[in-house]
Queue: 2 jobs
Job 1
Amino acid sequence: MNEIIVVIGGGIAGMEAVGTLLSLGHTPILIEAGPKLGGHVASWHKLFPDLSSAGELVSRLQEYMKGANIFLGTRVISLNRLADGYSLKLSNGMVINASAILLTTGFQLFDASRKEEYGYGVYDHVITNSDLEAWLAGRADARVPKNPEHIGFVHCVGSRDIKACNSQCSKVCCATAIKQAIEIKEKFPYARVYCFYMDLRLFGKKYEDFYVNAQRDYGIQFIRGRVSEVGETRDGALQIKAEDTLSGKPLKLRLDLLVLMSGIVRNDSIRELSLMAGLETDSDGFLRSVDNEYSVVESNRPGIFFAGACTGPKTVPETIAEARSAALSAHRYLQRTTIIR
Amino acid sequence: MTDFGFTLSCSSTLDLGKVDNDKFEELCRLEPGAGVCIGCGSCSAVCPSARLSGMSVRKVLLAVRRGRNVREMLQCCMLCGKCTIVCPRGINTRNLILSICKLYDD
Amino acid sequence: MMTERFETGFHPFVLPFLAGMVFVLGVCALKAVRVVFELNKADRKKWLLSLLRPDLILKNILDIVLDCLIHVRLWKRNRVLGFMHSSIAFGWFMIILLGHLEVLMYCPERLSTFYYPIFFDFFIEGGQTAVISRLMDAFLLIIITGIIIAFIKRFWSRIVGMRRTARPSFLNLVGLYSLWAIFPLRLIAEQYARAGDLNAAPWWAYSTALCVFMTVLPFTRYLHIPSEMLLITMRNAGVEISSPHRGMARVQADSCPNCGVCIDACPMNADPANLRHSTVYLTRQLRRGNEARIREISNKCMLCGKCTSVCQVGVDGPRMRILARATEKYRINLHFAASDVDSSAIGESGGGKSKGALLYFSGCMSQLTPKIGRSVESILRKAAVDYEWMDRDGGLCCGRPLYTAGRLKEAAELIERNEELIIGSGAGTLLVSCPICYREFREKYRLHGIRIVHYADYFCELMDRGRIRLDKGDICYVYHDPCELGRGCGIYDTPRRLISKAAAIAEAPKSRVESVCCGGSLGSLSLDFEHREKITRASLENLYASRADAIATSCPLCLTTFSRYSDRPVKDLAQIVDEQIIL
């Protein structure tokens, strides 16, 4: 088997796919635009619901894909369709003729400063979920105060919000918020932690236990009401406004730290790539699979496959499973085309 | 049948089947957004009238759907439109309020 | 040598013309009388008195000549359209005038017949040698050129620079084609008569065309010809629309020539579904009295005021719509101010008691755009201005949303409450950052000497007096004129002056009075969110065309709306100024 499979995107999906392809006897090439592998997960602290280390997962994947060809800091400049595959020109000057392409280009986080009413970039103590994750993983952040007494989490920032141009649920933020609430409560045991939600969507394995844990063992308060204004009091303290919909009263709360759960939106940096490849976009803005039930990893183009969050928000286990599935689909695709030839 | 005394009509129970749905459907024709509220409370949180009068678009819409009176709740709206701006479902809340004012007596 | 061809000076073909003439004059007179009686007492008095003032008489005549005959405003906007309209209007007027002059010179005793000037060549032999006759021929040719352009425009409107024109109704088409027929028919009939052929058939055709045109005139857009003259006198007298259908509103609706300039101008028409809500269709429905459509058109409009700013006759579309909204009957009324709500809670958060200080009012919307208030505060601090922020923790609405929704009484009640709060604060100056509030304060509030100032003007003053100094940055901004600040209050220059001191500045193809509404306007009652997106994107495209790095505006609503879809940064004027202040 000497056909080349190019995997674009070195996040966990790309890494898992490359590892699987290697084990199937292929020689995949991994192209990553950034300086390192692991994608978003590499800068995270812990994963839910078992609170296992994100860094360990990335190291494991790195081990799994040992021996693969990897181009870091490299982008696809052009992509042309050939009779039996695709020709890719890379930013490092290389030209690759690939028989199959696997897109694992992932997602980007909603830019919280687009919702100015939440005050990200305006007020001192407003951070996003990824800022907090990085802080938890050890990066210093002046916005996190020394001894916060009141910490608030806002769910659905840039998700399920037609005004943020994303009306879909980002799927992972509810569980992430609970995870981060627990972690920050462990860091600041005396702080009061609040989660402001519209609906709690805790659908995954053991998520409900996780939720109960947060309520019972960590005393995290869940308030059903979407925060819609963040302001400052006369003495300069952060103050949020929401409606406590269960008691039917407008609510205000002074906070020392506000965490915005930025949602998952499509990766804008692959717009050109998808245009060059002739890939379609679904109504939610993500790449369109052949169908959203059976053939999620297949694109409308023969020989191009998807895995992970490039087709929509995914959890870590879903992404890993999809990457394996896509690798297998690419493998079967190449076997078929070889036999035909 | 033996009367155990539990059949006394309980006025605090909401009998959803008895709510005038035709009127609500009429409201949905005037403002299609009326049907898609998820009750997040954003509208009430930003409402400048809310902290003075307790005005809440979410509650008004819920009351309409449950067949309860809304006159008192609605009166204090200033039509400022902040609720329309923040609604994550894109409901034209001003049109909703005016449509309710048009259709409902109380 | 001129001689009369007929002793009687009569031929039956003049009868259609005469019938049409009597009819149109009668109907127009009745319409004018009705309009005058529909005016409220004060306006009627104002108008009648204005007709006696020599300066206004002169202005009326001048305006009528410039607007109705020469179409100066249309010339300025579109030369081809200007030529087309003025060739027909002015040419026809000159033909009528010269026709009368001709009769006056050669057979003054026939002046009382009405039809002699119209059919002169049939009744008088040898007229074609006179200078006047030559002049009239020249004007007739100019008119026919105009009609050829009109013909082309009817089928290829883009040639005259119009993307869309109003759909004519059946009667309007009858009027249009009869108008087009009049002049070629006249030319043909005259050629026959001058050649000595007194065949009456072409004259019958000419007279019939005139008759048809004059008969349909009161029911078509051509009513604008007599109506605009009345409108000009009323406008010069200072009469404003005070009823949605009657009086001044009726004159304005009747004066709409259906030219369709407002269709291309309307920002809502970024979505073709909204074409039918343009002001030209509002005036048409007002004439027809179609209440359901009037309501639909009125509720949809964003009240950006662009149609009025481009309108050739000055139809005040937004005002008509607000008053039409005011006729809506609600079963529940929104009586915030009449309720027993205690608004003293407002005072506790702001309303500084220091006499003579500056009171800053940011408005409801600005709470969703915290950068505006923070920047204003920061600038005031840097300029060492003593200020109080009246609605830092929220306040009452300024009343404009209620007013634009047609809830005039409720808005007035709210305004009264706010007036008490502001006057009670003892401030000398009210600084406003939201253009919606600013316009309402300026137009509707009575604040007994408290100066109302928009922050663009105020910061310009601070800059001129050396209280703040700006460092010119590298970013290039394109400034978007918010509807309420630009067309609403005429503030175009101070924001640009501030930006040009703080950064480079570019102009969008459509700016100032032509600025395209951002689509977030509170003016519309029924426009839903999905339909607004197209408007916003079209407005952004106009701004992108300037090739600026970033967009500047001075309205919290524009800021929020643009931020949703813009591919480049959107900033408020205050933020830009604050970032570039040299300490």
Job 2
Amino acid sequence: MVLDIFLLSVLVLASLWTVMTRSILRSAIGLALTSVILTIVMFRLNAPLAAMFELSVCAGLISVLFISTISLTQPYTNEEVLERMKIMFARFKFLPILLVGLGAFLFFMNIRPFVPFYYKESLVDVRVFLWDLRRIDIFGQILILLVGVFGVVILFKERVKK
Amino acid sequence: MYSWLVLLPFLGVIFLNLPSKTVRYKLAFWLSLFIVVVQLFFVIVPMSVAWSRILDSLGTFLKMNFSVDSLSQVLLFCIGLVALVTLFVQREMAQDEKQMFNFANVLLLVLAGMNGIVLVRDIFSLYVFLEITAIGSFILISLDESFSAFEGAFKYIILSIVATVLMLLAIGLFVLVAGSTSFEAIGRAFADYPNVFLIRLAMGLFLSGCFIKAGLMPFHGWLPDAYASAPASVSILLAGIVTKVVGVYTLMRVVVSIFGFDPTLRTILFLVGIVSIVFGALAALGQGDFKRMLAYSSISQVGYIILGLGSFTLLGLAGAVFHLFNHAIFKSLLFVNSAAVESRTGTRHMDSLSGLSQRMPVTGVTSILASLSAAGVPPLAGFWSKLLIIMALWFSGFIWVAVIAVLASVLTLAYFLKFQRKVFFGTIAADFNNIKEAGFGLMVSSVILAAIIIGVGVLFPFIFSNFIVFISPLIGGTVGT
């Protein structure tokens, strides 16, 4: 229980850092961190499949592509970043209220879609799950990373050189 | 043993990047060629390989649960063949060794991705391999670094991402209802609870994703730009096999293994198939740029495959797989011909060309063969596959669908005759009096593909009784792992 509360607090902090930080590189790292913590939470909630998806798609693939692409771009100056942050705040200031409103609406409407049946997933060790059950996916993700790296090198790095 | 078809390209990429720059540039073509030839050899003589035992034991160690049925085998063969042709064409068209090296690397990764799609029996692994192929394709399309190539790649990225999101949502729902990602478990859930809202929703989302990836009308926005703006060799790869594997094969696989045959699905497939056939052909008729015409023609031809699948009969399914094979062959050949014409004349506009077959006889003759096969003229291969699909529709009582399919064939013949008349027939324009036949790589590719079109067409009775009749009953079964 203490661990869960700790994890959820870190999750909120990491996601806040992701949204609030001024550098997009740190933002990408924050996203990866958020995904990793979410993965642990999902494993603890006995949902290894969902955890696997989160780890592979968000923490693995997307983060590496983001970071490698960002590393090849020209960063904004401090003034530009501040200017953009102001615009972002102005644009999204009603978003939290909307989200809370939507949550309350769904809660009071008591909407529960009919799910026909559900095979309960058994709790397995994360290493066993990744290596024994999802080995093809891990291999596939190595391939995706390779393609991503080649894409960045061929299309961006060589252009930057030119 | 089949896990090697995914591992080998991966090891090839690693091996290709180890030696010094000069060695790796020299090695790029030959190593890729070796891997593609090994793939073709594996598919043609799968079990007679003397060292299959050693490969088997290594494959077991890697524990990849791949499975092969007749549909997978046809696709693996097409992937190998089109990749082979693409390599020859790229060798001819590449400006320098570095371009060939970059192309070979990404091609090998796309090859691994496509082989993976064909071999997996798990919806999430399928998604992972779809992504490998899609990301590789974006890079390949933009290899030229021209504005139009970036535009084509951008459109492809955006629509492909939309398709991916739809598919991921569907996969989430599949896991929710079946509690597993294997085709077998999801198929069982679909069979037990066919009319539950969530299952219908998941089916609709996944189908839409497949339609976008296959470039079917009205989801085809990206396809003409991507095909027309990509470098010649990439157009061949995209039109010949990538779209077929990521869109059409995925659709066939989920329909056969997961969704099962239901009347609503049949109506959707017929509607999308007919719209694609008719409007694809009409759009092709109105094009002035021959690469765009071929792109619209692809949309129209894929429509036939969808109709064959939608008939939900063994004959229709066999016809659909056979047409998929034929389409990979004749469309690759037509794109090789277009690459030859573009490289020699520097233009893609049909109005500014004429009489080229006088100077490019091999290109002229092979393109006539491919066009006639695409239009369904006997005794070429395309005729037989269309005949099977139309017979399946007719005998299962969908006479009006069969009639539309036959009438649309006339449209196909019309736009291909227009293409032939404008580009290859007539007197040669003064500007092109001194042009020469296409280079060796393009000629070899054209001749091999044309020989397959004639061979499969003439030997159809043999091919029908030895291969095609075994296709549909074996889909879903296993002939190897």
